Amino acid sequence: MVLDTLKHMDATSTATPVVYRDHRSPRELIEALRRVRRPLLAGHVTPDADCISSCLGLAVAMRESGVAPQVSLPGGQLAKRLEFLVDYAGRDLLCTAEPGPIDAVIALDTAGIKRLNLSAAAASLNEHLVLNIDHHESNPGFGRVNWIDPRASSTSEMVYHILVGMNLPIGPGVASLLYAGIHGDTAGFSLPNTTADSLHAAAELIRAGADVATIGERLCRSQNRSDFDLLRRVYDHTTVTPDGRIAYSFLTHEDIVGAGCHAEDIDDQVSIPRSLAGIRIALLFSEGEPGVIRINLRGEGGTSVLPLAQHYGGGGHAASAGVRIRNRPMRDVIDEVVAAAARRLDGEGRT
């Protein structure tokens, strides 16, 4: 269950929340992290490699400094291809039910408070300090202290800078996690969010012992049969609009279950329609749970898909955004959103 009631600040504070939108980790955030002793770290629902890696990487580093962190993962489910990341941290960090005593919530890689992956039992945590670390442009700053850096390739890159700022050692396990997060959000250092800073962070993590060979193999070359069958359905359903500017595909709930997959396994399959030459906008519509249609949006050639996502209540980055639409037929949603995407390309912002 996603937490809806988490407040902007701890109950004992009347101060205005602090929001930093800068490329440097703020002193106030580092000081707050140094004070917490029992944090609950939480990412977004259906977590991807960056979300998992930034949560676990920060948790491991804090544990090694004498802190007692927990990582929220209600139900304990991850995409099958990402389960190996837990091996670098240990399952004892994962909180799959009620959390133990905590003194702070650290939100990572989550664009909005309603997207936090917290259990129903966590709904009473609104009296705790909330620290918000994220790289999504649409993040409004819902924590007591917020560091939001849309220029960062990933939240894992931001966590790397936090650990450097806190003078915490980065061992091979933490280095592997954070490298995997950067690798995942840059699509193997191939997307425009790959910067000199992200490459520098990745190089330093490799020097610290990041397991490059295993991460590359597991993220790029380790599909199991169910993932492969799911991709076949994405290919089969891929459609290109007559003008060649928009490509989209869809996965019904029956497609996903029939392939032996779950909602958590829907991650970067949008890369299939995105891979077609000349595409400006790529879309993947998926019904991981009945009645909930998730839309992954990607922009190419400098096209921003964030306004389109926000029009439907979603968020994310300029070139990578997401939406959830409930209780509407798949075909109706596809027709409406593809038409809105075409109008946006035609009218430079009109949906």
Topology, number of strands: 13
Q: SS-based structural class? A: alpha/beta
% residues in beta strands: 15-25%
Low-pLDDT windows of residues: 1-14
Radius of gyration: 19 Å
Strand order of the largest sheet: 1-7-6-5-2-3-4
Shape: globular
Q: Mean pLDDT, rounded to whole units? A: 91
What does this structure look like?
It is a single chain. This protein is an alpha/beta fold and 351 residues long. The protein folds into two domains: 18-220, inorganic pyrophosphatase (n-terminal core) (Alpha-Beta Complex), CATH 3.90.1640; 225-347, Diaminopimelate Epimerase, Chain A, domain 1. It is built from twelve helices and 13 strands. It has a seven-stranded parallel beta sheet. The chain has a six-stranded mixed beta sheet with strand order 8-9-10-11-13-12. A hairpin with a 5-residue loop joins β8 and β9. The longest helix has 18 residues, at 330-347. The protein is globular, with a radius of gyration of 19 Å.
